[in-house]
Design a protein that fits this description.
70% helix, 603 residues, alpha+beta, single chain, 5-stranded antiparallel sheet, Heat Shock Protein 90, 3 domains
Amino acid sequence: MHVRNHELLDVKIRQYLLPAIMMKLALQLGAVVDTIFVGNLLGTHAMEAIGLCAPVLALIQIPGYYLGNGGAITASILLGRRKKREARKIFTTTFVITAICAVLFVLTAIFLSGPIAHLLSRGGTLEADVQAYIFYLLAGSPGFCIGLLMSCYLAADSHPQLAGAYFVISNAVNLILDYIFLKFTPLGVRGAALSTMLGFVAGLVVLIPYVRSKKRMLGFSLAAKAVEPAEEQPQALQAEDGRDMRAALKTGLPYLMFLAVNMVKSLLLNGIIISFFGNDGMAVYTVCANAEFVLVMLIGGLMGVIPNIAGTLYGEKDFYGLHVLCGKMLRYGAILTGVLMLIVLIFTKQFTLLFGVKDPQLQEAVMLVLRIFVFSLPFNFLNYFGSQYYGAVEKPTIATIITTLENGVILVPAVLLGVFVNQAGGGSGYLGFGLAFVASEGLTALAAFLYRKLKYRGEPFLLIPAENPGNCLDFSIPAAMEDVAKVPREILDFCGQYAAPREMSNRIAVCAEEMAHNVVQYGGKTSQWIDICLTVLPKTDTETGEEENFILRIRDNGIHFDPTSYERDGDEFDIHGIELVKKLAKKVTYVRAMDLNNTTITV
């Protein structure tokens, strides 16, 4: 009758796309905006000081970015497996750790901003500006850390619009305050750092409706109701919590390595550039690095859709959905990469003028590096896909290899060698500097390819089966009564192929029809499609340890409704069939994941 389509997934991809791009941009956009305003209003000297502060900016991103991404992906997988209590525990633990780190950053600002500035500037003329900038970055880090963490969980808990709103508000406030502080006050670079931190604090206002919502899947575990069977022992719960937290830390490792290696890379590159090029080289690198941040973050933002959706699909073992998701992201990414390359090659000079670089010699250097750097984008796109996807499907080793190699292990030696050889041959060194970025991305992509081929011999590129596991009936129907009426026949025909007892087949068919009927009748205007998946599992499922034969999954994009908490309300409000389904089924579980209703019925 029907086959599985990807209408629901297409809606979710579009819904998550803007928030993912905004999150990636926000990680560096504050520094980019600061650099633009500082370069134009305060001059290249102050811009160089901000460039030297890049390691500190990477440092304060670590707690929220590492724990947020690792925790959110793990929570998505747990929600896909209907383990709501464990998902809430992950959220609570990562929130507490991030808050503690934020307090430590504030103490660092008070007592250590001077020595850090001396180290970064090497005691040169930029030390005072560097100290002022990093003091406000560290002092205002709590709002930044909590905001990054919560934005990851907002997307995982079916609120990608709130995550996008957080970054829109944060960067809008930063932009406005930057202009005010730098144009009309004597704050100087202090104003640039202060506007960035105040922007992220202002963005926290979007968390108010989420925290007050009673329908969210994630919350502090101390306030959450127990959802596990009463007979499960506390010791077993604690052991499981420990495993889940270790999984979150492991899943977030690629994100930790990205920021940690990026921080070390910034320190080493700053030293190399000052040694070979002097302060002018620092200005060139700052402009090129900020242009790189914008371009790469657009690609990374597109790929950022993957962990928000793939974790839940992987937890549900919806491998069809994973193939659809990855296929679309690879196509979109290839198109975006081509467009970005053309823009940079055509408007290279405009990039340099945007950052206030008016000196002809500096302009030539910046344009040379940018025009070479653009050819690293195709490899960068493939590397971003690998780091996002493999981390979301519990293959963090590949993702860690990618982030470690491209951000430091290969890049720093390549820059040192390229600049040295270019200058030894009579050149300025900037040609070798630009080529190092292309070499780093290309060699990283090659190393990841070889590792995957050797580690997973014979496995497909995505390292997942082409179809869902077990004997599976997977199809989609429009949310219409005439299509719901045909569902029982499809279920009975499928069950007949596996000689299922007639009584069990009838129970499954009734459950599927009743749940689909309720989606059509009460799902609201947003309800357009229903995915129905019936899986025949072995006698003992290795993941749950339970004897399960038939698992029925209903997924829809109607209004938020949890059938497990529904109680009949007499004649005034009676959702037909829910009580019948509960009597026929062994177990009914529900999660709101990817902003979709996901109900699983065990018969």
